[in-house]
Each structure stands twice: as C-alpha cells, then as structure tokens.
Amino acid sequence: MFKKFQPSIDVSGQTSLKSSVQRSIRSNILSHWKIDVETLEQIWPKKEPLTLVKCREHISIYSLHGEPLFFQHFDGPFFPTLRLLHKYPFLLPTVRIDRGAIRFLLAGAHMMCPGMTSAGGYLPPPESALPAGSPVAIHAEGKEHAVGIGLTKLGTEEIKKVNKGVGVETVTYIGDDFWAVQSI
Amino acid sequence: MASAEPGPSQPVAPIQILYCGVCTFPVEYCEFGSHITRCKEWLQKEHPPLYDKYYSEEALQAKLGTLSLEAQTKLEEDTAKKEAKAEKKADAALKKKMASQVTIKRIERNKRKYVTAIHGLEAFDVDLKKAAKFFAQKFATGASVTKNAQGFDEIVVQGDVSGDVVEMIEDGVGLLKGVPKDNIVEVEEKKKKGGAEGA
Q: How many domains does chain B have?
C-alpha cells in the first residue's frame, strides 16, 4: 500500500477531527487492539486532538502533533504505524515468516503461505485462530522486532490447509516510503 | 478484550528501539538494507556491545544454521550487488543535484515593472514556501509559490529583485544555505511586442 508514497503528492489535505469522531476511533481501537485504556492514553492523551491526513486511494492517516500514529484504508481496520508497533509490540496478533522470506518482504511482496507454515514461521494456534481480513504484525525468524504489518487474506487455519499463494497481504514494511515519513 | 488483565492496570511502558543511524532500520535488519558496510561501521562506533551481538562469529554461525550453503552465498552476492547499486544511485543523485541549476528570471510585466521568478531551489532542499515568505519579508513585497507553464513550482517575487537574490544566494543567507553559486543562471524575459500576455 505504501510502496510508493510521497507526502508532497499523495496527501490531499489535513484536517483536525471532530471530538465525536475521535471518540468513535478511540472505542474502535480499544475493542480491536489488545490495548488497555491507560496505554492508549499514553500514546494518545485524551486532550490532544488527532489530525486526519487524507491521502490518495482513500488512505487516512491519523497523526498526533505531526507524528503519524494510525492509518486506515477506506473503512477498514485501524493499523498502528510500524514505529508505534515497535514501541508496543503487543498491539496486534503476530505471524512469523521464515528467514528466506524477509528479503522479499522488504521488497514489498505479499507473504505467501509456505513462508509462514515452514519451520521458521509461526501462525497462531487453532484456539486463537484469526479470520481473514484481520491486521497482523509480521515478525521474522530470529528477529526481535516486527518487520511489517499485514492484512490476512485467508484465515490462519486456512493458510495452514491451503499452503499456497498469498496468505498475508503486506500493508507496510520497514524501508518503504511510509517508513521514511517520520512526520507529516 | 479492552484490558489485558483484570484489576487496576498500569500503562505499559513503550519499548525503546535503536534505529540505525545510516539506514533508519532497526539495527537487526541492517543486513537487509543497502548500506550494510556503513551500517556496520556506524554500529561498531556507536554501540559496540550491540555490534558484538549481531555481527560476532557466533551470531553469524547461528544464522548460517538455518540456510543451505548455496543459498547463503547467493544471498551474500545479492547483498553485495544491492549495495553497489545503492551506492551508484546515491552518487548519481548527488551529481544530478550538483548539476541542477537555479534560474532567476526577470520578467517584464509592464514598462519598468518587473516580477522575478526563481526556479530550481527545491533541488537544494530549500522549502519553497518558507523561502517565499522569507523573500517577501526581506524585500517587503509580495512573494508566492506558483506552478509555471511547465508545471514546476517556482517562487515569484514582485518587483525586480534579481540582483539581490543572486547576492543573497552567494552569501548563503539563512534558508538559502547550501545552494552553490556556480549554478545560478540569470535570465531576462521581455514582453513580446503586441503579443498576447505571457503567463
């Protein structure tokens, strides 16, 4: 999504958000991420107004004092930015890819199922299986921090069964153009 | 799902991550970047313990364990190739930057009335909007950032200030620092006789 992203071209406008919209975002995040009220308060204090940065292709980035915090595509789920995810790695459920796949991920490829079902990979166990279309943090074999953020294309159980083709769509990864945007 | 544990919960402290000063990746991902040699040097200088953790013999051995020998050599080759490519690209970008010109155009608007258009400053990392404001303040005239006929952004200052602008760039005043003076071109544009009005 962010392989090519230039703030000077792709941003079409910035507005500060109505407090009612902010409230709905807050409750949305609290119900979808594994986060408690206090931690969210620390990331995004209640008093601070969030800025909505509208970009091409219906991408909305929400920033606080110029620092991007979350983004969203259409009315889809909220994603934290990678830098935020690095600070709070528990926000999203995790999948892990094997070492061979890192190279391709960093070139912007979507993640294929075998990369996650192989020995180096990891998928959530059946009891906490994820449905298709849920945001996940993509970690890498032998690495401590997340390497990207993705959106599951298949449910995790399905990935294990099908084991072919795209399993997780890459949304953003370290080194893409959105990573380079530190303030907006 | 809202709170992870019952009872009064404390906000979880954020994890501090060290990002590489060269490629901005988290340091453990430097090896996949395109400046690995420089990243390594940087890490060794700034954070020796971490350097040992990621690039010591054992660490390298541990990594080797998961890959076949052929794959490993291929990976190394690829990395080297990528690095060379990135370096070349950076070089070319720098060269291009140094070759790009700043055009200062004096446009006749009416007899004895001029506007000055300055084009090409953005190549030297000058914020056009700020620069326009700066010019406006300096010359006490109007200055704006507009798109010219070719679709490039340029600063248009009211009045003939071409000489002053050249001087300012040569002295490297404030915002205009870093613009090499050899790259300045002064151009004059006269209104065509009886022709349609220019842009």
A: 2
